Amino acid sequence: MTAKFCPSCGSTQGPFVRGVCRPCFLKKHSLFELPAKLQTARCRSCGQISFLGKWRKQEPAVLKKLIEKNTRILGLENPEFVFSFSPEEAGKIRAKATLKGEIDSIEIEQEKETILEFTGALCDSCMKAVSNYYEATIQLRFEKKEIGEKIVAEIEKLLSSLSKEDLLAKIVSAKNQKHGIDLVLGSNKSASKIAKAIANKYHARPVVSYKQAKGGTRDKVKKRFTYCIRIPG
Ligand SMILES: [Zn+2]
Ligand SMILES: [Zn+2]
Predict the structure, then answer these.
(1) Ligand nearest 16 Cα, by number?
(2) What whole-number distance in Å separates Cα of residue 111 and Cα of residue 17?
(3) CA-based Rg of the chain, rounded to a whole angstrom?
């Protein structure tokens, strides 16, 4: 009986797949395709992730399905995936996918890695919850319309950078007034920062006032703040 060996590397370590040893076979053939990176939207408020058009709780079973949906298995009998995940770091999870199966009834497996990356979003229900919610109003008063438009554009720009950290940093509504505009904002924290920045830039002094709003708890009175900024000139 002649000893079987791998024509590629000379190994006598069987079993052989399509005439070569398993390591040599895997060097030339992929058992499955998997993108190096998979991006998924995740709600910044409740942490649910978007999967197949639905918002789902982020748990291993869902992450496994998410990866499986993005793989393509290439000619393997009885394929079966095993996954493992690293702890999340900076919005990323390293996932290891091992595919086991058979070729011509010989067991074979291959391991690949992908990075699950989460991007900030708002799920439908969180979006609804915040759409009518507001904490502050900026009353911008000015004489020249062009100045007003310029400042509103600056406020929008500030909000878009603040919204990365503060999901309520947005204009809920805007109302033109005789000598200016009222901007209603979701977040008081961001409204206060914006009022300071704009007042500083235009040498104005913001006048802050507040009203008690409905819906506070016993320990925490809910307040709605108003920042009135008169632009001189
Ligand atoms: Zn070999
Ligand atoms: Zn949400």
Answers:
(1) 1
(2) 17
(3) 29
Q: What is the pLDDT of residues 102-135, one digit of tens each?
A: 999 999 999 999 999 999 888 888 887 777 788 9
The separation between the first and the last C-alpha atoms of the chain, rounded to the nearest angstrom, is 102
Distances (CA, A) of 214 to 117, 132, 152, 220: 39, 14, 29, 11
DSSP state of 121: E
73, β-bridge pairs? 32
Instruction: Retrieve residue 197's tokens.
Output: 């920045």
Side chain identity, residue 204:
A
CA of 28 to the centre of ligand 1 (A): 11
Q: How far is the CA of 123 from the centre of ligand 1 (A)?
A: 51
Specify the pairing of strand 37-43 against strand 106-121: parallel
Tokens 């500030």 belong to 158
Residues 6+ apart with CB under 8 A from 176: none
Tokens (6 digits) for 166? 């503060």
Q: Give per-residue pLDDT as tens, 126-179.
A: 887 777 788 999 999 999 999 999 999 999 999 999 988 887 888 989 999 999
- Angstrom CA distances, 149 to 41, 84, 156, 215, stand at 33, 53, 11, 34
Per the structure block, which two tokens stand in for 105? 């009834």
The closest ligand to the CA of 129 turns out to be 2
pTM of this structure = 0.59
